[in-house]
Amino acid sequence: MKYLEKLLEGVEVDWQPLGEITDYEQPTKYLVTSKNYNADFQTPVLTAGKTFILGYTDETDGIYKASEKPVIIFDDFTTANKWVDFDFKAKSSAMKMITSKDESKALLKYIYYWLSALPSGLVDGDHKRQWISNYCNKLIPIPPLHIQKEIVRILSAFTELTALLITELSAELTARKKQYNYYREQLLNFNEGEVEYLPMGHESLGKFIRGGGLQKKDFTETGVGCIHYGQIYTYYGTYTDKTKTFVSAEFAKKARMAKYGDLIIATTSENDEDVCKSVAWLGAEGIAVSSDACFYTHNLNPKYVAYFFQTEQFQKQKRPFITGSKVRRVNADDLAKIKIPIPLPEEQERIVSILDKFSILTKSISEGIPKEIKLRKKQYEYYRDLLLTFPKNNIES
């Protein structure tokens, strides 16, 4: 605030309606007509929403030359906005293209940073076009041009630094995950003749049992633990000894129950990656398992089996058994045909011990880096808001 006071040097800030210092244009003549998007094409197709770049088109007519005249694209319903300084075509007519009426009085980049500091989203839950009905009437502080330029300089530098840091942190997270995956694949791959490979449903190993009729409406605040199939790929990791949800003791009497060491598997998903995701149950008490899931009761190391389900060799065997179009499924009887390497119990324990350490490290990084990214974004927003907070001089915005 001291820096801002020094920057203002006692100059009063003029507050003006946003609609008086900006022009807007509908994107009608810039709308894309083809849905044939391809990464090899040149011109990005934009939306003001989170997706931003929907794809790339080879259309050459009706391109907005933002490389010559930058623009703010403003989603007229959600109020999300983006700064664009490259040529593009638009996807939706439900957005406004905002420019400054006079750059010598109000810099467009300054206007963009001020807009970005406003809360986005539907106003009062009202699903109507927001620019004319709401936003163009908002009062924006207009300090002298040299102050606008300094604010833009600081925030542009901060934006670049934040983006660079986020890129580096994301790359670090990706590298650690790749490293973990590499060692998991190596530890669970054996040379020919080194260990025996058996179908998972072999009588000497175990069997797959389908889950029961557990639905979300059956959940209770406390009681007997349960795992619903959807939670396996949204909530749980490789193993757990606590459940997120519960059912009543009465319900549990008629439910399909998994015991300590069983592997609980989601047999239904909307995509091939999530189908057959699993979690090893390491709790002392039995738990109810939902339909669209099954559990594998066996005599192997529970974590060893759970880690095996994450390997590419398991995925390769799983894929031919996937059926369905919108909803992807794998039958429990087909899972029983998948072959798993059977090293000695002590070797299973050694592999699990190594992978547990990698898992803890990767989880720490996986949780730590997103937190760090979130903190950096908050830090940027803090300084942005600080730089764009001006005395209102008894004027209500």
Automatic annotation (TrEMBL):
Residue ranges of domain Type I restriction modification DNA specificity in the record: 13-174, 295-374
Residues in the signal sequence: none
Keywords: DNA-binding, Endonuclease, Hydrolase, Nuclease, Restriction system
GO molecular function, one term: endonuclease activity
One Pfam family it belongs to: Methylase_S
Entry keyword DNA-binding: yes
SUPFAM superfamilies: DNA methylase specificity domain
Annotated InterPro entries: Restrct_endonuc_typeI_TRD (IPR000055), Restrct_endonuc_typeI_TRD_sf (IPR044946), Type-I_RE_S_subunit (IPR051212)
Matches recorded under Gene3D superfamilies: DNA methylase specificity domains
Family (UniProt): Belongs to the type-I restriction system S methylase family.
Name this polypeptide is given: Restriction endonuclease subunit S
Species of the source: Nibribacter koreensis
Upper taxonomic lineage: Bacteria, Pseudomonadati, Bacteroidota, Cytophagia, Cytophagales
